[in-house]
Amino acid sequence: MLAYTLVVLATSCYPDESLNVPVNNPDVDLETDLDVYIEENFTKEYGMAIRYRFVDRFIQPFQRVTPPALEVVRPMLDFLENFWIGPYLEVENGEEFFRDHVPAETVFLGGLLYNEDGTVTLGTADAGAQITLTNVNAIDQNNEQWVLQQLGTIYHEFAHIIHQRYRLPQAFETISADGYTSPGSWFNLRNEEALQRGFVSPYATSSPNEDFAETVAFYLFETDFEAIFLTDEPDCTDADCTSRNEGRERIRQKLSSIEEHYIKFTGVNLAEVREQVQSRL
Fold this sequence. Notes:
The chain is of the alpha/beta class. The chain is 46% helix and 10% strand.
């Protein structure tokens, strides 16, 4: 299972892919107006089931989580329609892309997903079949931290589906080949150290697959992406500044290869998707 997680005190950790989560649940009667809304607007429309009734198969035995509150489900659905589905529907080839790649299940969990090793899982993606979002009970679209956490999770996990289906762009993993960290050590890096290595976040250094997903996610949701990650600092007079600019050159190469990859295999212009996302923030 691919996971978008963090360690308490603003680091993160992603478990392995050992959990095999089945896609199909037993049929649930459409008991409420909410169930009818989900059936009409998500399941029938996009082939995506929304799981808001908590069952323990959505988490691993060693994890603890709070179930979602009923009153946050509809606002969370509106959030997904606005920030996840909507941007793709507005760009060329985007609707076809979304319908073809959307996972069969999206799971809502009420709180953060606590692991026995002290880490906190923000979300997971299971082989393109399921995306799990946590902390939905704290929904507050005026809270920038909550919004960016959710967008980072959604876009990161959705990007995993691309490399799972089409692999990574050619030679992507060679651009920052010397910058990847050994297993379990990425959270020792600071943001600046990651940038100097050519990565948008410390977690991106953990593997080429996570590097790809993090780059896509940051590109879509980070308003200042160009200023932070693409624009060189002028007149460098010290080694750290030079290293940051060298890292930015690597990120420019990665982003270019990712955009070409999306165009080649999906026909979607990722820059246009970013414009749509940013217009909604």
